[in-house]
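2024-03-11 09:14:02 INFO queue: dequeued item Porin family protein, len=184
2024-03-11 09:14:02 INFO validating residues
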Amino acid sequence: MLKSVVIIFATATLSCASLACYGDSYASLQLGFHDYEETVSGTSPMLFDSSLTSLYGRLGKQYNENFSAEVRLGVGLGDDVYEQDGLDTGLKLSLRDIYGVYLRGGMQVTEKLYPYVIFGYTQATLELGDDSFDFHEDFGGVSYGVGVDLELKPELYTSIEYIHYFDTVGTELSAFSVGLTKSF
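2024-03-11 09:14:37 INFO prediction written
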């Protein structure tokens, strides 16, 4: 896991350096609090759920006052109990990695407040297991959400966001996140 974090931050640093040449760019470090739900159909549908945490970087380019595009790359932090209908299954679920591309549309409401909507595509790898085995699978899909950037001082913002990452074959992932964003 440490190796993944180092690779992500090295990539983010190099990408930031290349984006800085073009102006109107931004980089962010976010902490995400994810809700995972999986519904298994049958005569009596079963609901599996878990709460996961991630750390990810965002790199973006502001094309005009109302439109930007960005990429995100992150890793999960730890694992959580995998529950079936509220009961512990004895298994642990973790978010190995998450990445995607997004378009943001927003409007400067006040000098310090920039609400936005976001739309894009996300891919994530989830791992399920216990001490004797583990199984991982990739999921992905259309993502959408809302957020707000609040200016702390010129070119430094705090970001608050809710995003529904995907709903694929009965598997849903959504998250509330907070972070710091630096524009350059």
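2024-03-11 09:14:37 INFO annotate: Strands lie at 25-40, 46-64, 67-76, 79-84, 87-106, 113-129, 134-153, 156-168, 171-183.
2024-03-11 09:14:38 INFO item closed
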